[in-house]
Amino acid sequence: MFRYIAGKIGLALFVMVGITSFAFMLGVLSPGDPAEISLSSGGNYTPTPEELRIVRKQMGLDKPYYIQYVNWITQVFGGNLGVSFRSKKPVTQEILTRLPITAAIAGTSVLLTAIFGIGAGILMVLRPKGIIHQSGQFFSMLTISLPGFWLAILLIHVFAERLRWLPTSGQSSWKHLIMPIIVLSAGNVGIVVRLMRSSLDTQMRRHYVLVAASKGMTRSRTVFSHALVNSLIPVVTLLGNSLGGVLGGSVIVESVFAINGLGKYALESIAVRDYPALQGYVLVTGFTFVLINLLLDMIYLALNPQIRLAGKTIS
Predict the structure, then answer these.
(1) Cβ neighbours of residue 195 under 8 Å, at least 6 residues apart?
(2) Domains, the chain, ranges and CATH?
(3) What proportions of the chain, in percent to the nearest 5, are helix, strand and coil?
(4) What is the DSSP string of 122-147?
(5) Which of 64, 123, 197, 230 is the most exposed place for a label (fewest CB within 10 A)?
(6) Average pLDDT of span 49-71
(7) Do 294 and 12 meet the contact criterion of CB atoms below 8 Å apart?
(8) What is the pTM of this model?
(9) b/e per residue, 261-284, with b = 16+ CB within 10 A?
């Protein structure tokens, strides 16, 4: 087990180094001169060659790339992600301001996905025939098929404009977050429902479940006492990956609902080629995804005894 944990931590650190390299290359290889972009104020001012020379020296752009990388990564580990070209504010400060709202939306959406997805999948297995199973199949296919931006516009039209139950945009209260959370979780719920049903149905056909059923154990007790834990591993993997994907892919939702989160911050930074902001965004979302996957690997230890036994067969 110790070797498994050490290997996963080592792999996570290796991936993080790769993410820092990619983020640095994003600023180096992207078109445009960072010094000129920083001085031009969005194209409203044309800097002189002398001003460009001074700023390049201040930013360390006159040094070889490997020295620039060492200096940049040293600042990153010190919590300094640079200064935004657009706002002239520290990128760390802006990300820390926007991260909580994005994390709240992403975390809540994944929580709802787990509750409704796993719950509906279990119900479909407990009631393999009838209206519950058919309804689960229909709604899972429906939510998977709906584009996120279309669902967002539909919810705004129905619940904000027609019924006037919810505000159309913003983030000043919990009501502003209801529709964004629904949009982010809708597609993932359908996927989790189908995966949970398939995984649990596979476990219900295993010999250990058939033996339990032959001893007179009810179907519901067999599910919750034996098959459920073994069927959760692929679902947990999907939920962890969806959390990382939602955290880094909330651009559409935050743009449609005018939420000042990380996704909207990245979109605004791309529009003006704000490379320090984009580098910070890549680092934060990339590191978060790696840490989530590391946490998933630790959860596997609790769910799968064979991992704790280093892959040995349980007798």
Answers:
(1) 117, 121, 234, 235, 238
(2) 91-273 (1.10.3720.10)
(3) 75, 0, 25
(4) HHHHHS-SSHHHHHHHHHHHHHHHS-
(5) 64
(6) 79
(7) yes
(8) 0.78
(9) bbbbbbebbeebbbbbbbbbbbbb
DSSP class of residue 33 equals -
Q: What are phi and psi of 171, to 5 degrees?
A: -155, 25
Contact (CB, 8 A) for 214 and 167: no
Tell me how far apart the alpha carbons of residues 208 and 41 are, in angstroms, rounded to a whole number. Answer: 68
Mean pLDDT, range 126-144, rounded to an integer: 85
Estimate to the nearest angstrom the gap between the alpha carbon of 157 and the chain centroid. 27
C-alpha distances out from residue 286 to 16, 37, 276, Å: 8, 25, 15
Lowest average pLDDT, out of 22-26, 180-184, 194-198, goes to: 22-26
DSSP state of 315: -
Categorize the per-residue pLDDT at 118 as very low, low, confident or very high, splitting at 50, 70 and 90.
Answer: very high
Q: Encode pLDDT of 199-235 as tens digits.
A: 998 888 888 888 888 888 888 888 888 888 888 888 8
Question: Which of 60, 31, 106 has the alpha carbon at shortest distance from 284?
Answer: 106
Average pLDDT over residues 65-91: 84
